[in-house]
Each structure stands twice: as C-alpha cells, then as structure tokens.
Amino acid sequence: MSALRISPLAGLLSAALLLTGCFNEADKTTENSTDSHLRLAMLQPPRSGLTPLSDDAFKLSRWSTAETLVVLDKLGEAQPALATKWQQTGENSWRLELRPEVKFHDGTALDAATVVNSLTVAARAAPKPRILDGVQLTAVADGEHAVIVTTAQPDPLLPQRLSSPQLAILSQKAYSASGVVDPRHTGSGPFELVQVDGTSSARLERFDGYWGEKAKASGIDVSFVPDGTARGAALRTGTADIVEAIPVSQAPLLDQRLIHEVPMPRTNTLYLNTRLGVMQGPALRAAVREAINRQQLVDNVYEKRADVAQGLLGPALPWAAKLRQPVAHPVAARKPASETITLATFSDRAELPEVAVYLAQQLTAAGFTVKQVVREYSQIETDALAGKFDAFILSRATVLDSGDPVAYLYSDFSCKGSFNIAQLCRPEIDEALQRASAIPAGEARRKAIMLAENQILATDAAIPMLHERVIQGEAANVRDALRDPRERTLINAATQRNAQAD
C-alpha cells in the first residue's frame, strides 16, 4: 500500500470528534474548493484490505470502481454489465458473451481469460466468498470473448449470483501468487481506485478510458468514519457531500432536506421456539402475535423511521406486497395464564435491547411473564440456534447476495436450515421452498416465494415486526447519488457536486 496520507475530509472528521460544539460554520476551504471530487463519509472501514473476495467488495461496488458480469434491476432480475448476454446451455452450464472494448484501469483489455481467472480465484478461495457458499463453480473460456460457467448442481439463479460484488472482475494484475487481491488500478468502472490509506481513507480518480458514460465527478475522496455523531456532523458542517448510515438519533439534528430514508431488505423479526418450551403450542404463539403493537415499536424505538411489517419481505422488494395473500392462521389465540417466556436478543444493534423492553411490556400486558436476556451477539448466537430461548428478536437480512430471498427463507425456516432459530420443521414448507428454488428468476418464482412466505407466517414461528430503513445524507448541491436498498451502488458516473447549491 502507499505511504500514509490523511485526506482533508478525514482530518476534518477527526477534529469533529473533539469539537462537538463547533459545527455552526462549514469549512471554508472545502466549501470554496473548485475540485469536483465527491467527498464521501462511510460507516465501516475495510476489514480485509478491500479484497473483493470479502464484504469489502461492496465498497468497491458503491464506488463504481470494480464491476461484475451482470447487475440487478429493482425486481432482482439480471441485466447486462461486463457481459452483454447469456443463455443456459445445459442443465448446469451457462454461456456468457463479454462486452467488447472494455479496458481495465491498468490498460489491459477485458477478455475471456481475465474473467476465467477472476471467477476461478473466487471459487478456490478459502474461505469462499459468501455468494459461493455451497456452490461448486468452474469457468472456462469459449473463444476470446465468451465464457462458460458450470455448477455442480443446477442453479437457475446463476446470472443473479454473478451480480454479487464478491465476484467482481479485475485485471489479472490484481491477483498475486500469495493470494492477495489488490483492487488498485485493476477495476473497470468509471472511477479508478488509486490510493488506500489503511482504514482511514481512500482516493479514486475519474477513469477517462471507461467503456460507458464518463464520470461527471473528477473523483471520490473517501473517509471511513465509524462514529455516527461524526458522520452526522460532516453533513451538517458541509465537510462531506454524501454520508452513509446516519444514526436515527442524529437525524432530527440535521436539515431534513439533506437526509433520505432508503428501505432496507432487513426485517426486525420475533422468532418463537416451536420445538421446545411454552411456544410449542400454536395457540400461545398466536397470542404473542396478537399482543405485539408494531406501531409502538416504529414510533418509539425507530422514531417513525421504519415501516410496520405486513410480512417477512418488506418494501425493499417492491413486488412482495403486490403478491402477498392474507394468511389463514389455523389456530385461534389462547389467553395466556402467566406462562413464562424467556425473551432474548443481542446488544450489537443498538435498537434491539429497546425493542425487547417494549415487547416485554406488551407481552406482560397480554398475560405472559417475561424474562429478558441480552448479550453480545457472539455470546448468544449458539444458544439461540440451540433453541435455549422461547423468543428471540433478530434484525435479519432477507435478501442475500444473489438478490433473491429463497436462501434466507431456506436458512431460517426449512428443516435443515442452518439458521433455524424457530426450530421449525414442516414438510409442506420445505416442499414450497424447493419448488420456488427450482424456478428461474421471474414472476413465477416470485409467486412461489410468496406462497412459501404465507405458509411460514401461518405457523407463527416468526412474527415480522418492522422493516428497517437506512438514512443517507446528501449535500444540497449533490445530484444523482444512488439510493440502493441492497447497498451495492452509491456513486456512479452521473453523480456529481454542483458548484453552488440551489
């Protein structure tokens, strides 16, 4: 990596932590700068040296420096990117044609050998990128401008899988013999990553050789700012143009015209233990469902910056509500007789312990006796998965890396699911999920997913309470920042900062 260099934004944000009372005036040097670099304050620093084989891949994607073969539209369907078209050529194989005349930032050309190299490195990595969990994938060249990708088992979602930022295509110079992947100067997007300063900052410059629309901004100056108060201050003082994940507590302190709430594919859900304890009985699970006041949670814990849940899949999946059918609960609720519920959650997400307090009050009012358990996630996950609690509050991502919710539903609600906190095992639900997983992406698959959701909700094994939003800050003179529920995109070629705010 290059020698240490602290960006102006990083310096200003560090000072903000010490000068919390001095935010009345924006930094004049930054404000009057003619540089059209976008200044971005991000929540989390890199955890794995910005290798695309880790979750750091999503930073490279949000900066538009590393690109994938395909991208997803709002419905989660695959659209062309570095691949222009694809077709299934066998039960387990797909052929993808590559976009011509694509150059990487190091000047080399996109070709089949480069794509094969990137996919092979990902497939052989240890640990594998999360998108390839349980997937055996191989790639071979089919001439100079096409590749054939084969999986050990039929995978109707392979094009969607290839959209994951963890399967970004970098030039061959990115990959070293030691296994280190360096994304500097090796992407193909409209911005070239030129400098990374550890976990403090990064700098990108406009890539004039980009195959698509040239970037309107001259570059991006990134600072990693884990402290939420400092991120809010950066927007308020004008020292950042775009700010990730402003905390709910900071939002009321900011100009409301500068903050934008983006629905997340994340549902705050109460899982009930269907195998052990008092929640084995469906009538008491129904009583829990009827006792929950979702609106109170949204209003008091999330300060109205969340959406009351109607199902497991929320507004971040715009097709879900249209296809959802009323749930026919087979068992009526029984009035509790002071049965004791052990209600557990974790402290890593600040809102969850507060949700637990409100839920305990609601369940107590309904006639239950409630015992609360709150620990750090690393100390509670094993017990939750072992069924040691009657009820568990979880903030759960419902759309994983392929952009499709079947993996989440299978993990959480199938007999062999690896994250089955509810201890649920119903053959009819397994069959519904298997049917959905075998259908190619499209309307038929979406309908099958919603039928499976309906069957899961009918058991009251999981009671969805609310869908979370993320708050994104944008300065008044920023144009065309992206507000992506999947958090894959943020800045693209069209994003820019005008010289003067309106």
Automatic annotation (TrEMBL):
<keyword id="KW-0614">Plasmid</keyword>
<feature type="signal peptide">
    <location>
        <begin position="1"/>
        <end position="25"/>
    </location>
</feature>
<dbReference type="GO" id="GO:0043190">
    <property type="term" value="C:ATP-binding cassette (ABC) transporter complex"/>
</dbReference>
<dbReference type="GO" id="GO:1904680">
    <property type="term" value="F:peptide transmembrane transporter activity"/>
</dbReference>
<dbReference type="GO" id="GO:0030288">
    <property type="term" value="C:outer membrane-bounded periplasmic space"/>
</dbReference>
<keyword id="KW-0732">Signal</keyword>
<dbReference type="InterPro" id="IPR039424">
    <property type="entry name" value="SBP_5"/>
</dbReference>
<protein>
    <submittedName>
        <fullName>ABC transporter substrate-binding protein</fullName>
    </submittedName>
</protein>
<feature type="domain" description="Solute-binding protein family 5">
    <location>
        <begin position="78"/>
        <end position="418"/>
    </location>
</feature>
<dbReference type="GO" id="GO:0015833">
    <property type="term" value="P:peptide transport"/>
</dbReference>
<dbReference type="InterPro" id="IPR030678">
    <property type="entry name" value="Peptide/Ni-bd"/>
</dbReference>
<dbReference type="InterPro" id="IPR000914">
    <property type="entry name" value="SBP_5_dom"/>
</dbReference>
<dbReference type="Pfam" id="PF00496">
    <property type="entry name" value="SBP_bac_5"/>
</dbReference>
